[in-house]
Amino acid sequence: MAQITLDQIAHSFDPNPASDADYALKNIDYRWEDGGAYALLGPSGCGKTTLLNIISGLLTSSNGRVLYDNNDMTLLTPEQRNIAQVFQFPVIYDTMTVAENLAFPLVNRGVDRSEIDKRVAEMLQTLELADKANRRAQGLTADEKQKISLGRGLVRYDVSAILFDEPLTVIDPHMKWQLRTKLKSLHEQLGHTMIYVTHDQTEALTFADKVVVMLEGNVLQVGTPEELFDNPAHTFVGYFIGSPGMNIFPGTVSGKSLRLGSVDVQLSKGYSNLIGKTEIGIRPEFITLTSASMAGSQGMKFNLESIEDVGRQKIVRGNIEGMVVNVIVTEDSEIPSEPYAILDPERVCVFQDSFLVSGDS
Amino acid sequence: MSKPFNNKAWLFVLPVFVLVAISAIIPLMTVVNYSVQDTFGNNVFYWAGTEWFIEVLHSSRFHDALGRNLLFSAIILAIEIPLGICIALTLPKKGFWVPVCLILMALPLLIPWNVVGTIWQVFGRADIGLLGNTLMKLGVDYNYATNVFDAWATIIVMDVWHWTSLVVLLCYAGLVSIPEAYYQAARIDGASKWKVFRYIQLPKIKRVLLIAVLLRFMDSFMIYTEPFVLTGGGPGNSTTFLSIDLVKTAIGQFDLGPAAAMSLIYFLIVLLLSWVFYTIMENYGAEKQDPRVEQD
Predict the structure, then answer these.
(1) Contact indicator for A317, A334 with CB cutoff of 8 Å
(2) What gap in Å lies between CA A84 and CA B121, rounded to an integer?
(3) For position B251, what pLDDT does the model report?
(4) How are strands ordered across the β-sheet holding A37-41?
(5) Are strands A340-343 and A287-290 parallel, antiparallel or unpaired?
(6) Which of B187, B289, B295 sits opposite A78 (nearest CB)?
(7) CA A243, CA A202: separation in Å to the nearest integer?
(8) Residue B285 predicted with pLDDT over 60
(9) Which of residues 99 through 158 in chain A touch B, CB cutoff 8 A?
């Protein structure tokens, strides 16, 4: 177990990187606290896996240092770092039985036979594979194989951290939920530092205490799921987290007054000295639709396009003066025939050149 | 309940059937025909029954040649398979050197058999051959035409030079198809190089290796051209393999009956041994399999 520090990590797959664009990772500074459950969230190709491989030592970064508890690990192998990593697609040793597969990392490290047997038996129980212990791993289903891959990482009690690289991609949906819950409870039980790479926000938000959002080789924001939801540091975070994501549209802000199209909206905070491109973000949850008579001066005419029923909520899609806006309302709410949208002024986020600006209260 | 049959499907199979009949079944039947009869030419045949088979099976000449074949194939497999795997493991997996290595490896495979024999025949000659001359100058008394050991050594080295590439290329194809994640997982699991080979690479190339073993066994067991060109079966009969003996019997002595019987026995031995190899390799490592589980 260890605290992991990334010190100015940058990586390029090109041996002679010329410009910023050649870098898959651009100057990442971050400290993963010991025992934390982290999710590394971002779209495909944003450098999540590269970062994970640099942490585990499968890859040596072009610049910067990796520290485990203040020990420089930058040039050490995964074995020397004593780290566990689970990959996107199941890796099993075909010729071994399920039990032998789980024992493999322990056998390689010269753990006592009795200790190995004990841990493997426990892990078989945890993963609900006990009845298949002596079966050859080759004939198992994809999710059983992936459970074995997970098990080979979890069976090692003394690892510095366990890294997961989209481990549930090949798993059936109902098993996904079950395994994620299992990982969560194992984290609570064992207290390992866990870093979980995913491009699925549900997975990230349910698994992690802290979510690290990445885009194009940069870390955009690190925070709890609530922080990411309430105060996205970047328009991308706002858009990427939440379903549907945050509504983002151009607007002009001066002081406490926001001009959206042809309507002036009063904000709860004042903003001064805004330079560059100003954008407004508001989550679909914080827009209400009312009739013209109830809307008052703050209401904006909402041109309704479609209504989707998603269980307890309805997603109302439409536009305000041509700007695409989604609104989430409860399933039993009535939508007026000529709806007007009202934004919750407390919940409006103002972005300057895509980054969040905190207003003066 | 009657099942509907669509006999038109037979028409699709017919062309292949005709081709196979002309290329394999009819010639084979001719051999069977010769093997149970005796002839003195002029297209006059006498019924011989199983006489030729009994004669061939009891002849020490056949036993000796068969022994030589088995020994030769055993040596060839024992050298070429491990050597081929080792070379395949050391070949680069990506970059500029990949095509260079593969082309160099494939070159011997492109040379016709009789040319290979001729190359080595000249190469090994003490007067003009690079190998023979060098060995002579080093004080080694090497002569593949008079010394049994030298003749065998030359043929084996020649075959290894000619055919190891095939094993290399097949194994290489198997190795490059292993996903990178397996190697990464093995590093994470702390597996040694040997364990990576034993538990990842070997199981993953098992199937191509089976093909390599079968091809090399059948080819080496049926070797003819190279020793025929190099030693002509000598010195004495020391490199007279079944195929060379067969040709001597059939064309040299014009004993068509015994030669036909011999080729059938030869054919059955190749078939039988190939089946044995196949069965052993297919089932190797499967003993731990629960019999109730279907293999995927």
Answers:
(1) no
(2) 58
(3) 83
(4) A84-86, A162-165, A194-198, A37-41, A210-215, A218-223
(5) antiparallel
(6) B187
(7) 9
(8) no
(9) 104-105, 108-109, 134-136, 138-139, 149, 152-153
Which residues sit opposite A270 in a β-bridge? A360
Q: Tell me the C-alpha to C-alpha distance, in Å, between residue B265 and each of B20, B48, B242, B246.
A: 21, 16, 11, 11
With a cut of 90, say whether residue B79 has pLDDT above it.
Answer: yes
Q: Two tokens at B146? A: 């008079």
Q: Are B226 and B158 in contact (CB under 8 A)?
A: yes
Neighbours of A322 (CB within 10 A): 8
Return d(Cα A99, Cα A130) in angstroms, integer.
9
SS3 assignment, position A90: coil
CA dihedral A81, A87, A90, A91 (to 10 degrees): -30
Q: Would you tell me how many other CB atoms lie within 10 Å of the CB of residue B286?
A: 12
pLDDT confidence of residue B82: 95
- Nearest-by-CA chain B residue for A97: B288
Whether the predicted pLDDT of B286 surpasses 70: no
In tens, the pLDDT along B238-264 reads 888 888 888 888 887 778 888 888 889
**What is the distance between the alpha carbons of residues A184 and A115, in angstroms, rounded to a whole number?**
25
Percent of chain B topping pLDDT 90: 23
Above 80 in pLDDT, residue A360?
A: no
Q: In degrees rounded to 5, what are phi and psi of residue A254?
A: -135, 120
* A268 touches B: beta carbon within 8 Å: no
Partner-chain contact A89 B179, CB within 8 Å: yes
Report the alpha-carbon distance of residue A27 to residue A33 in Å, rounded: 19
B172 to each of B88, B177, B187, B197, B213, how far by Cα in Å? 5, 9, 21, 13, 14
Return the residue in B188, B195, B197, B209 with the most chain A beta carbons within 10 A, the one to mutate for interface testing: B188
Nearest CA in chain B to A88: B181
User: What is the reported pLDDT for B25?
Assistant: 87
Pairwise CB contact (< 8 Å): B289 & A139: yes
Please give the single-letter amino acid code of residue A103: A
Q: Do A78 and B188 touch (CB under 8 A)?
A: yes
Q: Round to whole Å and give the CA distance between B156 and B152.
A: 6
